[in-house]
Fold these 3 entries.
Entry 1:
Amino acid sequence: MPLFLLIAQQRSACAYTTDTPHLKMLGELYDRCQETLDQFQAFIGSQLTPAEHAELLPTVGELCGRYQLEPEVAFFIARPALGALHAAKGKDDKPALKAEEAAPPPEEAQQVRDVLPASSWEVLSPHLYYTFWSLSLYDIFVPKERYESEVKRLRRQVEEIDRYQVPFGVSHADPEQRAGAIKRKKDKERCLANQDKLKLELQEQTAHHKLVMARLKESNRDWFSEKGRSGAESINHFLQACVFPRCVFTPGDAVYCAKFVQHMHALGTPMFSTLQYYDKLLRDISVHTFCCTERQAKNLGSFLNASLAQLLHWKSHEDVYKEECAKLPGFSVSFADQNSKKATYEDYVKVVFKWYCKVVKSLLQCLESTEYMELRNALHVLTRTIDVFPRMKKLGDLLEKRVAKLREEERKDLQMLASQYHGLLQKAKPGLQTQEQFCMGYDVTGGKDAGNRADRAAATADRAAATADRAAATSRPAKRAADNTPEPQAKQSRKADGPATKSPLNPAAPPFTPGSNGRGGGRGGGDSGGAEPARGGERKRERDTKARRALQP
């Protein structure tokens, strides 16, 4: 276990102990520490039972306090052992409840309280915090479709083995045929055994999932305090202390966060606003994108992909919305009364449209940035969300326009990522919807579409860049004056010639006389009388006048 703790501490300290100003190198080092921690945790889990793991590990409170580990790291290390740490003493051979299914004991609850400031527990209960961090994706999600597809694949392999026939003219006594028959028999037995294992595993996980969901349904009433009746402060604390740290930790944690919020909504958690949660989550993605390493940006993209997929599922049909959303308190208009009026389907479609516009605005800002990390992370997020975003043709065109510029980027890694996303976007183009199709026929913008909104956002960014350039150009003369630095010689000469060339004509010049070019001895032999040389336009008018006179009778 000392090695386990040293790896976890190095993950947090590498950004401060490494003497380099390059963010790319720091991010790569941080991601390698995180990858090493994941691999070592998988190794420990495969070699030790939960009881042995619990005996070797300190409590979560000690990991955070004594060993100075971050809460997400401490729970990641202790999560496999939490069941053994708090096993209940069941009677009549009833299965013991795990820590994932029970509240923390008093001493552990007190240690959990020390992780966050005391003000946080006024709107966020320690029970919710402990429940969120102690559960895993295995507890709250059963991938039935994946199990069924794997069982079907194994069944097809068995059928292919049974259909095998010995080629004509080949004896069964042939050594190669006998070896092949033995191999096919072993393969068939292996496939049948794996089918039985998968079916049994599915049954066990389904039973475990039902037990966990029953415990969550009983305990969710105490997750949010009455002081958070407005919903805003409690949602902010939940996002800050739970969702954001975990959704970028591992790919499994990214999906877990989206599924956990889905269950919070489905269970009708009191004082939890589903609409406010998604509004605060999708309000400004650019901030979270910029703060991530490359590995974290990929996990953030997976989390947004699962979250947006849930929003699209609720938007897919009005019957789905009425069945899964309209009856639950998460879509209440007012939190003063949980049984108050719920948001209509039209209201929900409009707010989803607004969220998509906010997301595309944030990502366009990232793509216009000059920061390498922000550009790269934005491309990773877009690549992970290609199945659910942008969904509208106008938003897709805007993203394609921005990404096309990055395909000409000198930095090869950015160029490769931009080309990859551009290819995915081209492949998804036939399935993109018009704004009217996406909004289910509702007028959501009062005559203004998503493309115009995003165009305004992009134009604002362009104007800001142009203003900065003009400000820089304007500041140069002032800086030269302050530094007593002379202007360049070419600019001084242009200023000296300015009054003479400001007006192209000289009002004091004598009338122009045809036949004289004002050069004293030129063609025509007339005296110029100090007149200016005839210009190109004047020569043309002279030729036109002569031509008209020649045509007169």
Entry 2:
Amino acid sequence: MERSALQYVLWTNPTCEEAVCKTLSALGFETFFPRIFERNVVNPLFPRYAFITNQANEWHDVFHTRGLCKVLGYPGPPAALPVGFVAALRAQCDIDGVMRTHVSVARSAQVGDYCRVTAGPFKGFEGLAQRAASQRITLLLSLFGSHRQPVHVDLSAVEVI
């Protein structure tokens, strides 16, 4: 993939994801803030995280955006995401960036199990089960380089490996 199409992760202040994306979009950057519809409420898919495509590789305006903590990888060069990561997330979302899909296959995992996600936007990712509830499990996934992010997944969308 050419340099101009690389995508990066923005880490924002709490509840500032949408404001950061709107500000950067107004400056001409392509941004993406994925959300998920659960229990009749729309919440961030990754609280405090959003994505940016920086075609010109210019960071000054990005770094000085109100509500932004940092671009992952900084200090030093920002760390680009794996090719296709954001496209896979977008494919799971509607036009407003809201994911409304749910899986319905039963599979049980326990805290401490090493699991693979079998459906949804994190399909193929692996991580350690950290917490479990009746229908959901929290996995620690390495999504953004070495930074491990807790991600809530339906129990039906994981398999123990």
Entry 3:
Amino acid sequence: MFENLAEHQVADKLANCVYKPAWVMTSRLGAQLSGNFVVSALPLPNSDPLKLVVCVTKRDFTHAVIMESRVFALHLLRRDQIDVAVRFAYQSGREVDKFATTPHKTGHTGVPVLTDCLGYMEFEVLETFDTATHTVTLAEIRNAEAYLPLDQIEQGLPGNEEWFRKNAPPHPRAVAAQQAAQAQAQQGHR
């Protein structure tokens, strides 16, 4: 076994040089619709039909839905859709109906597909690999639709992780934690 000599800052910078589009991931289990925000989806080069590797966070409600239904859709957002990204990133489907204000239809696989975005792809899960924090899924394309002509969709057009970090407001949990820490610090100075 090799010792890990990688500096986190160096490894993080190198890994994040890869263009990472921001996706909204949706799924369905019976009448329950679910969705979250994903930046860890990579296509397998030269796979035919298209296959993708996606890391699904275990703490998200969408994880349980996808692991049981074995289907999901990925949606590419436009750069003017930070509100949609935040809705799917910051809220839990256990507590909020994210689809109540999000235009959508039922896709080929039965999952909800957003109707206001650059386009979407529907997948069926073929295999999974378990890690401590995520389930890595290997999935195969079942359907796709673009809402723009294909020659208008190019790298850099959709929102990506950097776009999200620069444009999204602070996460409400982070704000609450900061406020609690400030209140505690003020009490300590009294």
